[in-house]
Amino acid sequence: MSILYTARLELRPITLPVVTAVLEGRGRAHIEALVGAEMPWAWPSRALVEQVFHGSLEAVRRDPEGRLWGDRFVITQEAPPRVVGSVVFHGRPDADGVCEIAYGIEDSSQRKGFGTEAASACIAWALAQPECRVVEATTMAWHKGAVRLLEKVGMKRAGTRVREGIGEMLLYRCERSG
Fold it and tell me: Which CATH architecture best describes the domain 4-132?
């Protein structure tokens, strides 16, 4: 998987060695060396990684290309480079060509357009892949910032989806043109 570049960001693939290092509790310096950028102090926490990577480390190891499909760190291009968040897909698109995207920007880097810039580039990348024809995302109705971001990147409201343990969420979709 290639690195994606935007005006201000470098979107580097999240790799199996990085996921393994985080889940095995390796030190911050080790993870930063693998990523090639300074990590935010609150990220990556084991709880966040376990939330993002729903399955076990063994499941990710069995199918890293499928499970980490499209997943990227959001890294500033300024020196020194620093990770300001991530964009992840919930695995490779299904048999109908549908995949789901999620993103997170660390607190001190929010409201600077990084999420919009990164999500837009990752959605464009996904829709350019032959196996993907639809990208979906979900968010809570009260999360106005996420709703605005999804609309800014061209996603349209497509209904609701119920998530176990969370409840009803708004569903957004973006389809490949043509």
Answer: 3-Layer(aba) Sandwich (3.40)
CA distances from 146 to 74, 121, 171 (A): 17, 16, 12
The whole-model pTM stands at 0.91
Weakly modelled stretches of the chain, pLDDT under 50: none
Task: Give whole-number Cα distances, 74 to 10, 39, 79, 86, in Å.
Answer: 6, 10, 14, 5
From the DSSP assignment, how many helices (H) and strands (E) are in the chain?
Answer: 7, 8
Cα end-to-end span (Å), the chain: 24
Query: What sign does the CA torsion over 115, 87, 46, 21 have?
Result: negative
Q: What is the pLDDT of residues 47-94, one digit of tens each?
A: 555 555 555 677 888 998 999 999 999 999 999 999 999 999 999 999
Q: Which amino acid is at 139?
A: T
Identify the pLDDT of residue 86: 93
Domain boundaries, the chain: 4-132
